[in-house]
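Subject: two folds for Thursday's group meeting

Dear M.,

Sorry for the delay on this. The cluster queue was jammed most of the week, so I only got both jobs back this morning. I'm pasting them in the order they finished. Each block is the input sequence followed by the predicted structure tokens. Could you check whether the formatting survives your parser before we put anything on slides? The first protein is the one we discussed after the seminar.
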Amino acid sequence: MTRFPLTWPSPRCLLVALMTAAVASCASSTPEPKSAKSATGERDTAIVHEPCEKDSAAAQKVDVNGDGTPDIIHVNKDGREVCRVVDLNLDGAIDAFIYYDGQGLERRRESDFDRDGRADEIAHYERGAVVLKERETNFDDKLDTWDYYEGPRLVRRERDSDGDGIVDQWWQFNNPNDPKCAVVASDQNADGKPDPNSVVDLCAESYGAPKA
């Protein structure tokens, strides 16, 4: 006969369990990054550029501001555009590589936000909608943040906060009305799992509780 537990788990334990279940649920519908290695969150954090033959004879170069330097380069293959190189602010440096699937929809975008010539973010798309952003946020040229989307909304985040290649933070953005609100759990004992005593609600009062 199945017995009920004699004591209730603490609220923090329940919250961690819910976060773990939510991560598993999201993982079933959202593709995991190709850099994922193990169930404990170990990742290949290398930022790998996907080739885009911008110097090929088939590339169509557009000089928007007439300074003699192409600002947009369309790379075509087999009669369709496969990738595009864009200088968004017309400063002569590449800001983004954009890649397209067989239907002409965006499937990948590599963006350089700090203008150092290297990608800081790789966004992955399905049917033209973003599903995952792999990000480099601490200027060490290694991926450290993985953001997962459902529709236009960021729903969860995984972070490697100490740069050892292992995920040690889990964020759940569970308030659709405020994208800044999240419940965050951390792995403080290096067992690859969120610790119950580490859970922080970044916007506790915004979930309907009246302010004092």
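Second protein, same layout:
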Amino acid sequence: MSPATSESQRKLMCLALSIKQGLTPKSRSPEAARIAAQMSEEQLKDFCKSED
């Protein structure tokens, strides 16, 4: 896996990570909730990294 390719993708992956960790309700973003269910926490962390 590599970091997200766009800022909007990174934000979506970070939101999915937050949902997976139980910090954000699934109702906030059904798309992010679906991603959270399909990807591991490690994968989401990798995508959530910014390319500094």
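Two things I noticed about the second structure. Residues 7-48 form one domain. DSSP finds three helices and no strands in the chain.

Cheers,
T.
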